[in-house]
């Protein structure tokens, strides 16, 4: 369902306010942005409207290169995500890649069951549902669906990091210039990022322990 007219008008009006305030603070801000970008971070996150990376990280346009999709899933055969990763690592030469899941994730919650969500979403969430089956014992030991969804979101971040490890441009950047990978969970109710427990690997890659 698209934006209502009122919502669209708010977006356009909001843009004018943003542009005016940014220009007042720095008259050269947009002219500088127009010269190019050199972000140090590639952020792979969920399309959820409550987790806008630039806002929650208190960053500015140009600071973070972004790819977002349903439940921040990385599929090895996803051309869209792969092209973003390749561009970020090969051409922008980002220094870090962040995969960020979050609490109250609709995709993670849906993946706790096998309800028919439609052909596209069923296919998209299949790896997440398979991850649920793989960790069935651990997930069933948790108290409620909220806890299960958060844990599944964490496991999904770890799985996405595994997919990134195998991406040829990422592997090359890790070995040649020390690119690092990081997993995070954004707690919507607290408004805070939680960095997953990390252990330094010999190849310079940072990941949550398995």
TrEMBL record:
Q: How is the cofactor bound?
A: Binds 1 zinc ion per subunit.
> Where do transmembrane segments lie in this chain?
none
- What enzyme category does the UniProt record give? lyase
Q: Name one GO molecular function term.
A: zinc ion binding
- Specify the species: Glonium stellatum
Question: What is any one of the record's Gene Ontology cellular component terms?
Answer: cytoplasm
Identification of the protein by name: Carbonic anhydrase
User: What reaction gets catalysed by this protein?
Assistant: hydrogencarbonate + H(+) = CO2 + H2O
State the Gene Ontology BP annotations: cellular response to carbon dioxide; cellular response to oxidative stress
